[in-house]
Design goal:
With about 325 residues, the chain is of the alpha+beta class. It contains 11 helices and 10 strands. The strands form 3 sheets. Strands 1-2-3-5-4 form a 5-stranded antiparallel β-sheet. Strands 6-8-9 form a 3-stranded antiparallel β-sheet, covered by helices on one side. A two-stranded antiparallel sheet has the order 7-10. Helix 4 runs parallel beside helix 8.
Length: about 325
Amino acid sequence: MARSPLTLAALATSAVAGLDVTTASRHGSGSDFEQAALATRDGQRVLIRVPRSQSAETQASADLIALRALSTGIRGRLPFSAPTPLGQAPVGGTRAVVCDLLPGSPVGLEQVADADLAESIGRAIAAIHALPTSFAADAGLGIVRPLDALAAAVTTMDQAVATGLVPAALVVRWENATEDPTLWQFAPTVIHGAVTSGTLLTDGQKITGVVEWHALSVGDPARDLFWLLGAPSGDGADALLDAYNAARGSTDRQLRKRAMLYAELEIAQWLLHGTNERSTEIVDDAVGMLHNLVDVVQHDINRRIDTNTSPVMTVTEVEDMLDRNRRN
């Protein structure tokens, strides 16, 4: 049975000495955590979270490590706020964690069409990527080098292709991208690692806060851009990348292509999740998304994900080539 906001408020007072809660309300609708937003007598707003599963507990622990690694000096380099851990308390074999509750509304993809907000997002992500990698290493956070990123992409691709459900055109597309050494020449940076719906907070004009830091690490900066490049407005995505590159002085010309590849491999991950869970519904959804993706990439020359300049083949041409290869 889910704990009530009042029960969570009582847990918060045991986690944070002197916390005087005046109101409590349920926060968010996710299934991984029980959450409550609390107001205190001194006007503070805090958030208490209790994991509901082992995976959520692992995520909460990683989030706590990352937030503690964000020292005052590191936070001073960021043009937005990040949560500050206030305390924790044991509960039911896990632990409740209390942080300050950041103001702002979660950014949705449709909002990236707003050029001003898109530019603010680009600058915010650039600021994360400009952080010194030494602080991440000192905190024992993960480091993913180019060969590691390539190996992970190949593993996901191979496992998805092995299901026999990936369209032939995507198989060739992904193979070309993973066999293109130019695509994987990037300098690892500090990355948030989990930028998606709900992690960026806005006041409607600019990014005011970033949450969910559990994947903080050193890795491919394109990992923080793949969700945003799925924005309905191409103009918004362009404004975002322009602001990012201006802030970073980036020389990574393949950043956008790797981001698009990661976005496509997320669908492959969804397919693998469905097969692992033996969920026909999820598998069918993923297969539908993959076929829609074929239609998109074959009619948009701006969605190339390799640096080869040869023309994109049609589905018929790909199938003919595969038939020839099987006969040889």
